[in-house]
Amino acid sequence: MYNEPIFLAPEFKERLWGGTKLKELFGYEIPSDYTGECWGISGHANGPSVIKNGSLEGKTLAEAWETNRELFGGEEGDEFPLLVKILDSKKDLSVQVHPDDTYAREVEGENYGKTECWYVIDCEEGAEIIFGHHASTREELEQMIDDGQWDDLLRTVKVKPGDFFYVPSGTIHAIGAGIQILETQQSSDITYRVYDYDRVGQDGKKRELHLEKSKEVTTVPHEDPAVDRKKSVEQGLVREQLVEENYFTVEHWELDGAVEGLSDRSYKLVSVIEGEGEIVVDGSSYSFRKGDHIIIPATVDTYGLKGKATLIASHSNK
Q1: What are phi and psi of 277, to 5 degrees?
Q2: Which residues does the UniProt record annotate as the domain Mannose-6-phosphate isomerase cupin (predicted)?
Q3: What is the per-residue pLDDT across 238-275, written as a single tens digit (0 to 9) for each?
Q4: Which residues belong to the active site?
């Protein structure tokens, strides 16, 4: 029986819009000064996490999902269902939209579409995201895209640290410059670019846009999804539910002291965004610190936490 937390080595992605905050804030060894993404908990083929400890050390999360399904409560599915990232947007990300599961299967041949959510870790004062659009009908959306009426079409929202956004598939969105977020999403890498500010990449060419697919999958009209943040206190742990929906539940944990007897419905994904502490399982302690990404497997019946830290925890609702 695997009776300890699983620590994962993140995978890093260089992006046109990336910077150095992943190193500055979390101490990661990043590949360049254009590092935009840390894939902290990933079973995706484009960047699987590698297990750092225990009897599965050296295996990828995808391999563990394939061969040790008991760690995940016997959950069904060909692929690990969730992907947890930390993003650093030194520059604006492209304006984009993602398909739902049905479109992803029928058009892209992939298992999952992409519903996601964002917790703002830090940002510059006055930083903004694009979240939704102003078109009333699909015809109006298509016309505004064709005419390049981006200032009229796109809806901007100012952000601050601690903000949370639930971004269902079909939502036009973009993370603006100067923002670091933790993103929990379905395990999908399908992105349709709607607008990219006419930028060119390192090859001197503009990046590909996906206008027809974007028009097909965008939800019209845009409606902000309801987010009901709920807090509870368990000993030295304040738990705040950020979202509970079809694919995942995401929580913000503020640890200050100790909590014992935690038990999860199955396996839990945990990312440490501030501080340090210990996970205690059957009298054994496992130290964690800011920047760590951890899975508490379903084979751990109960566990405790000690320390002073801020964590984002999630689980699959499949």
Answers
A1: 175, -155
A2: 241-315
A3: 999 999 999 999 999 999 999 999 998 899 999 999 99
A4: 193
Percent of the chain with pLDDT over 90: 94
pLDDT number for residue 280: 98
List of residues 6+ apart from 42 with CB closer than 8 A: 11, 48, 49, 61, 80, 83, 84, 85, 187
pLDDT of 91-110, one tens digit each?
999 999 999 999 999 999 99
CA–centroid distance for 248 within its chain: 11
Q: Which CATH superfamily is domain 6-217 in?
A: Jelly Rolls (2.60.120.10)
Identical fold between 6-217 and 230-316: yes
Report how far residue 157's alpha carbon sits from residue 203's, in angstroms, rounded to the nearest whole number.
32
pTM value is: 0.96
Element (H, E) at 67: helix 61-67
Phi, psi (rounded to 5 degrees) for 47: 175, 65
**Lookup result for tokens 């659009």:** 133
DSSP 200: B
Is 267 strand, coil or helix? Answer: coil
Q: What is the CATH number of domain 230-316?
A: 2.60.120.10
